Amino acid sequence: MALIELREVTKSYRRDAIEIPVLDHLSITVGEGDFLGLMGPSGSGKSTLLNLLAGIDRPTRGSVRIGDTVISSLSERALAAWRARHVGFIFQLYNLIPVLTAFENVELPLLLTNLSKAQRRDHVLTALGIVGLADREKHYPRQLSGGQEQRVAIARAIVTDPTLLLADEPTGDLDAKSAGEVLTLLQRLNQEFKKTIVMVTHDPHAAERATHLLHLEKGTLVERHEPIDVEQMPAVGLGAGRTS
Amino acid sequence: MKYIGLVLKSVRRSRRRTALTTLSVAIAVFLFASLQAVLDGFDAVAAASSSTRVVTIRSTSMIFPMPSSHVETIRSTPGVQEATWANWFGGIYKDPKNFFGQFAIDPESYLRMYPEVILTPEDKKAFMEDRTGCIVGDGLAKKYSWSLGDRIVIQPGIPIYGSQDFAFTIRGIYKAGSSAVDNQSMMFHWKYADERSSQKGLVGWIVAQVADPDRAAQVAIAIDQRFANSPYETKTDTEKAFSASFGKMLGNLNVLLGSVALAVVITTLFVAGNTMAMAVRERTTEIAVMRTLGFPAATIFALVVGEGLVVAVLGGVIGSVLARLVINAEFLGMAGGFIPAFSVGNRNVAIGLGLSALIGILAAMLPAVMASRLKVVDALRRVA
Predict the structure, then answer these.
(1) Which of A110, A135, A198, B133 has the fewest C-beta atoms under 10 angstroms from its C-beta?
(2) How many structural domains comprise chain B?
(3) Average model confidence (pLDDT) for chain A?
(4) Is B246 part of any domain?
(5) What is the dihedral of CA A46, A50, A55, A56, to 10 degrees?
């Protein structure tokens, strides 16, 4: 069974009396362990699609199922609990809390669990270790580079071991070197830790790291690349690679 | 408890803003506790007043005197055991700003009826035997560094006592045995004042001791009936009501001071509310991120309210402690005469802290609702 299934999803926004369609009868499936790249021009609906998958927005029509849960029919409260358990979100602008240290930022989603302080600490240090920033746990975001901030944000996204990682242009604000490191890290999370990832990107080089690609235009699917041959992809760092 | 760190980090985010908000709450609580202390002072006097004493004044107003012959009439009223009298002297010690109560009394009967005026037997004897002698409260003696045997000169403040200064010798320093008597007053022989008065034989008020406190109201009516249709009709009430009437001479204090306190608290509420709203507005993205991470709306609401609570209660603690240390009549030199002894007690500190908590919760309520109802997608789009 596919991990993600969208059926006839339509999303439109109201601006005064005008209804603006963003997604139009979109149906897609994403398998467990896939690394899906979502591409398309601005306004094509890719971020809206990502928000629907994250459960921070609701479709106007149609259904969104993630795993066994039809999230489009959950209440706000249930949806928040579902997000906390199943979704790790990576933002373009990192969106770390500036008054919290790297450790505290990563610990944030764990505050919603029943873990003890010691257990939370173990989880946070593991996540920071995976992104290569265990030695920066006491640093504040302003004391980190953009690439390091994004890696802390990735640690925050994976610390709860979510079902699904969603990344909204995770390299959009980074230089080429940092972008490469972040993409390598995502690729490692997909290949080594079997994380299902959906990544919105404008960058064709970033899209190359995905195992599957969808191209959206005006809210509809115009191209589907199935699947990308990762053996042909550039070598990755951090000791990552295809594990299957 | 695991969220307290988050709340404290948010509080420390803008230290200047937090400090100013805390200070505004501290000032509000300080003022509230201070004004409440004054009101409590009047209440304490009334509460400590004897239930076996009734006070008779002129029916028109207590500023008008009545003949001393009223004393004997009252003494002979059924149910009355004893009576004494006093006059308000209203003199000036060196400078008008040195205000304190001066009462011309009949020493023997007055001290018998007011055991709360505590004197040593030696001081009492010395006072009784000296026509120009006086007794002063220990608070007043301390304020002016007076001791036994000191001579003090008071300039009359009421025209009937002429313009010539009155000289007194301090023969006793009394302690106040209850709030019904303040330790910031001076008492001297009524005869000394009366012999130099242009209107002889007048008394300001008469205090009667009743045998049965349950019959005090009936005795009061009986006293007034004895002077009905005379040129000097009277109004007799319990000592408690009489004490309260002193406060009323300064206006409706409850309404006046209560209004000031309320205005200060409401203003502070708006200031704190605006600050909280600003703080939350600046953190729209962070709140949206937390919601994306799975923080429920209720938790976001509690975090914002918690932040308001911490800032306001901190201000409340500062304001209450400051009021406790600074506000007391003796320290401020405000006691004496109509102003009873007052200070900020534990109850007022607790009310101040409760009030600050209420300010914190109310000020944070609207921003907290806004934060918890934030549309995550819109908030994230605003920044992206």
Answers:
(1) A135
(2) 2
(3) 88
(4) no
(5) -70
Min Cα–Cα distance to chain B from A229, Å: 32
Q: What is the residue range of B202's domain?
A: 60-232
The single residue listed with the structure tokens 């000020």 is: B363
Lowest mean pLDDT among A79-93, B172-186, B263-277: B172-186
Determine the pLDDT at residue B325: 86
B239 lies in a domain? no
Minimal Cα distance from A83: which residue of B?
B294
Q: Find, among B341, B354, B368, B374, the residue nearest to B37 by Cα.
A: B341
In B, minimum Cα distance to A75 occurs at B296
**Where in chain B does DSSP place strands (E)?**
53-58, 66-67, 80-88, 101-105, 117-118, 133-137, 151-154, 166-176, 185-189, 202-203, 205-210, 234-238
- Between chains, do A56 and B376 touch, taking CB under 8 Å as contact? yes
Q: What is the band of B110 on the pLDDT scale with cuts at 50, 70, 90? A: very high
Give the Cα separation of B105 and B88 in Å (integer): 9
Which pLDDT band, with edges at 50, 70 and 90, does B370 fall under? very high
pTM of the model: 0.72
What is the mean pLDDT of the segment spanning A136-158?
Answer: 96
Judge whether residue B255 has pLDDT over 80: no
Contacts of A112 in chain B (CB under 8 A): 293-295, 299
Reported ipTM: the value is 0.88
In chain A, what are the domains?
33-47+84-230 (3.40.50.300)
Is residue B52 domain-resident? no
Contact B292 A99 (CB under 8 A): no
Domain boundary residue among B201, B232, B263? B232
- Contact status, residue B132 vs residue B168, Cβ threshold 8 Å: yes
